[in-house]
Amino acid sequence: xxxxxxxxxxxxxxxxxxxxxxxxxxxxxxxxxxxxxxxxxxxxxxxxxxxxxxxxxxxxxxxxxxxxxxxxxxxxxxxxxxxxxxxxxxxxxxxxxxxxxxxxxxxxxxxxxxxxxxxxxxxxxxxxxxxxxxxxxxxxxxxxxxxxxxxxxxxxxxxxxxxxxxxxxxxxxxxxxxxxxxxxxxxxxxxxxxxxxxxxxxxxxxxxxxxxxxxxxxxxxxxxxxxxxxxxxxxxxxxxxxxxxxxxxxxxxxxxxxxxxxxxxxxxxxxxxxxxxxxxxxxxxxxxxxxxxxxxxxxxxxxxxxxxxxxxxxxxxxxxxxxxxxxxxxxxxxxxxxxxxxxxxxxxxxxxxxxxxxxxxxxxxxxxxxxxxxxxxxxxxxxxxxxxxxxxxxxxxxxxxxxxxxxxxxxxxxxxxxx
Length: 419
Hints:
The chain is α+β, with helices and mostly antiparallel strands. About 55% of the residues lie in helices and about 10% in strands. The protein has ten helices and seven strands. A four-stranded antiparallel β-sheet has the order 1-2-7-6, with no helix packed on it. A three-stranded antiparallel β-sheet has the order 3-4-5, with helices on one face. A hairpin with a 2-residue loop joins strand 6 and strand 7. About 20% of the residues are buried.
């Protein structure tokens, strides 16, 4: 790297340097207040200037293997030498270099901050302009809406006025017609009420008849409503049960014992033990009429229906018993387990094994140590087809526990449905 020429006048100086095989992208240059640096590997050029220059106003031009530095002097004057007299003092060079780098970094930070401030100001200005544009657009749209609303209101008022005028004209026309008819009727002489009809105007007389209307019998005085049908049916059912209970309590042919639900329950249990299931059903039914909220009566009658293979009636009675034993507590745990086993047994006898297994699972959760129920559960499990087993496991996973790892309650072969 060599110095070719030095042209100094009162305000600036030029420094030209030639670089062998110079490439613009690999060259780094920096102009500071007291020095200039050029880094072009493997070359490095550093010059400590004889006097300070304006680093912000200076510039460097690169091209055709030449770098031209244009440096503006702070103090106009002629330099005898480009280099400072302290160029050979390493300590001074180091201090000057560090001081110049700090000033350069500070200048870069100030420039960056100034650029950010300008950018923020431009951003605020752009946002304000956008807000103004949007406000103008909203005002324009509001103005259009007001004009359209005004036009519509005027058109409506005009139509109302036209309709009002038409109505007035029609009214005047009708009044004129009525007035003319009234005057014409006053001029006409009244005829006899026995005056015969003119010939050629006699009509056919219709035959008279009677129409018979039959209304559907209804208990309630109000009209029937589809939304009220279920409530009315429930009310009628309760009224029928109450009437049956009153009739049984007022029946003089029955003794006081036969009017006691507990006595009828014990009687039905004795009939069940002796194998007279139909008599047990009759006893439980009479007790249900007297005490329809006692779940044991429904559960025991369901056991009788199970013995007689009345499977649907067994399912209905056991479901009613489970409904009456809500909420589930420890005191009715054994009764709930028996009702679940009986209903599950009926489902299995109807070959509805999945529904039965669900009831058995619920009963086993109440009494998990019943070995007889667990052993019979395995026999029912074998009756399931592979598709039923996969569906049953899927239902168990959705319910929150694995049905395949718990023993399944069975009531087909054990006497857990005894009264």
